[in-house]
Amino acid sequence: MKKILIVDDEEVLRMLIADTLEDLGFSIEEAEDGEEAWEVIQKNSYDLIILDYMMPGMTGVEVLKKLKESTVKKDIPVLMLTARSQQKDKEELLAVGADYFMEKPFRPMKLQELVEEIFHV
Question: pTM value?
């Protein structure tokens, strides 16, 4: 079973994503901010991290940078969620190491399709 970490400071959004992906048979863990995310990333293995761009404290971009600098965890694919839709924002995310990104707000079906594509389901 594939294991996914959802990191977002909005509890309702985490629940929506978790419900969508659990219905597909994925194992889900959640973190509500960047600091908590970094702690659990260091202790656990994940097949995908869904990471919010803007969070209080450690941002998603900061978590992404730390992850990609890590020798052990750098190969975990990261799907960035962002309300920022400018081309320069997307380019920044890709340059930092994001593998995928999705603009907020999004439809759960679109997220489901992207995750299925990532795992070749």
Answer: 0.95
